UniProtKB/TrEMBL annotation:
Span of domain Rhodanese: 27-125
Domain of life where this protein originates: Bacteria
A Pfam family recorded for this sequence: Rhodanese
Protein name: Sulfurtransferase
Gene3D superfamilies named among the record's database cross-references: Rhodanese-like domain
Annotated PROSITE patterns: RHODANESE_3 (PS50206)
Length: 126
C-alpha cells in the first residue's frame, strides 16, 4: 500500500462519511455543504447550488470558528461541515484536517460530486 493510500485510509477511519442519498437530509438538519473543487473542475463538472464554494487551500481558515478569516457559518465546533470534492478522495483528507481543528462533526461525501450527479441527488439540492 502506498503512503497516500495509508493516509487516506487513516483519515477515512476517523470520519463520518455520507452517502450521496444522505446529503439532502443532512442539509435539512443544518449541515453546511462545502465544495472544495477547483474552479476549472466546477466549470467542467457542474455547480452544486446548495454548496458554499471554498477553495481547498483556505478551507481550514474559513471553517475554524476562531479564525479571523472564518465564514459566517463557522459559529462553533458543532457545525457539521460536509466536504465535497469530485470523487471523494481529497474531501476525506480535507474533512480529517477539520477534525484536527476540533470540528468534530466534519464529514465528506462518498464518491463526491460524481456520486451526487449519478444518483440524481443534485436535483434535490437546488
Amino acid at each position: 500500500m502506498s503512503r497516500i493510500d495509508a493516509t487516506l485510509a487513516t483519515a477515512r477511519a476517523r470520519l463520518r462519511r455520507l452517502e450521496a442519498a444522505e446529503v439532502p437530509e443532512a442539509l435539512r438538519r443544518g449541515a453546511v455543504l462545502v465544495d472544495i473543487r477547483p474552479a476549472a473542475q466546477r466549470a467542467a463538472e457542474g455547480e452544486v447550488p446548495a454548496a458554499l464554494v471554498v477553495e481547498r487551500n483556505v478551507l481550514e481558515w474559513r471553517c475554524d470558528p476562531t479564525s479571523d478569516a472564518r465564514l459566517p457559518q463557522a459559529v462553533g465546533d458543532d457545525v457539521q461541515w460536509v466536504v465535497l470534492c469530485s470523487q471523494g478522495y481529497t474531501s476525506s483528507l480535507a474533512a480529517a484536517s477539520l477534525l484536527d481543528l476540533g470540528l468534530h462533526r466534519a464529514a465528506d461525501v462518498v464518491g463526491g460530486y460524481q456520486a451526487l450527479a449519478q444518483t440524481g441527488v443534485l436535483a434535490d439540492l437546488s
